[in-house]
Structure formats: C-alpha cells, structure tokens
Prior knowledge:
This protein has helices at 41-48, 53-56, 62-70, 74-80; strands at residues 21-24, 36-39. It is of the alpha+beta class. The longest helix has 9 residues, at 62-70.
Amino acid sequence: xxxxxxxxxxxxxxxxxxxxxxxxxxxxxxxxxxxxxxxxxxxxxxxxxxxxxxxxxxxxxxxxxxxxxxxxxxxxxxxxxxxxxxxxxxxxxxx
Length: 95
C-alpha cells in the first residue's frame, strides 16, 4: 500500500462506496496541483497487485501512469524537460 509523505499508509480511493474509483495521485512537483485518475475496480486491484504499472494498467497512457507514480502531468513534464533533447521519450512527450 502506498505511503503518505509522513509515512502513514493511505488508501488511494477517493470514494470507497462507489463502483470504480478516482485514484488520487501525488501532488505534481511542477504545478503543485493534485490530479485523479479514474479506474474500474479490477484495474484498481491490478494497481495494488505489485505488478509493474505498465503491466497492471496497459490501457492507460504513459502520461496517466506517470501521474499515478509521481503526480507529474504531461504538460508539466514537458515544461520540466523543455531543454532536454530526450524529453519526447518520456510520458509528457507522448501525447
């Protein structure tokens, strides 16, 4: 289970009573905003299964998977790596 900054175990689901869920992502290091990614129940279980994220959630775009891992939005990734020639090889550069 993911850990909060203070080491507290957190439940990623925003509303546990609704089928499927909006998963709260970490705060973006560039813009300091939170994001949510919608997953159905089976995708949420896959996320928590311990598989690599690209194996657990292959239907998500690379930028959405990056938001789940680091919180960084695609546009923010592009801004962070604007001067890096390899930026197009990463999630923000894919969309």
